[in-house]
Write a structure and sequence with these properties.
Elements: E1 6-10, H1 20-28, E2 38-42, E3 52-54, E4 57-59, E5 62-66, H2 74-78, E6 84-86, E7 93-95, H3 105-109, E8 116-118, E9 123-125, H4 131-135, H5 141-145, E10 151-155, H6 162-168, E11 173-174, E12 185-187
Parallel strand pairs: 1-12
Antiparallel strand pairs: 1-10, 2-5, 3-4, 6-7, 8-9, 11-12
Length: about 190
């Protein structure tokens, strides 16, 4: 039996920048304080929600960002306490908050800026791909709540999963592949 490798494909052509994923994640996972496990960046300019181009060909496009649950996570390999770790059965990268010393190094070395300081509990936190929901057969909150159906989640090692099929089509690409982390989040 092949180990699972959970991942996500995000279609930036469908993302409307509504931030439902961000709000759903924050509320449903009870992410405390100023920490955010999801956020958006402008795909085509410096300022979020500012159109680029010249009328009538203006564009506003977004890249939702979250933990990429990398095959070679920089956060885990550089964590001085081992608090950041990768589950070998699912590929999900998690934080053991009981071991975290909140040094913030994981956030500095992550090319995606995924780890975020939980300023209430004084530990690092990050997207978990909603591991508890996934274990029960449900989708992560950000996927389930996306009104544009821009996110597809699944086992990338299962050739029959929708996410795997999108990768097989060859249109989805990882963000910042030059970082060498081999992310499990891809973008169309």
């Amino acid at each position: 039996m092949t180990q699972k490798r959970y991942g996500m494909v995000i279609d930036t052509q469908h993302c409307v920048g509504c931030q439902t994923c961000t709000v759903s994640c924050k509320i449903s996972n009870e992410v405390p304080g100023g920490a955010h496990w999801n956020h958006l960046e402008s795909l085509d300019g410096e300022v979020l929600y500012q159109a680029t181009g010249t009328f009538p060909r203006t564009v506003v496009a977004f890249r939702p960002l979250l933990c990429n649950h990398c095959d070679n996570p920089a956060c885990a390999s550089n964590c001085p306490t081992g608090a950041m770790h990768k589950d070998p059965e699912t590929g999900i990268v998690s934080v053991n908050e009981d071991v975290c010393i909140a040094c913030g190094y994981c956030g500095w070395v992550c090319p995606y800026g995924a780890p975020s300081m939980n300023d209430v509990d004084r530990v690092m936190s990050k997207c978990t791909f909603c591991a508890e929901r996934v274990a029960q057969g449900a989708e992560p909150y950000c996927v389930a709540s996306c009104p544009a159906n821009a996110r597809v989640f699944g086992d990338l090692n299962d050739p029959e999963s929708e996410a795997s099929k999108l990768l097989q089509e060859g249109h989805a690409k990882p963000y910042l592949p030059e970082a060498g982390t081999h992310p499990s989040v891809y973008y169309i």
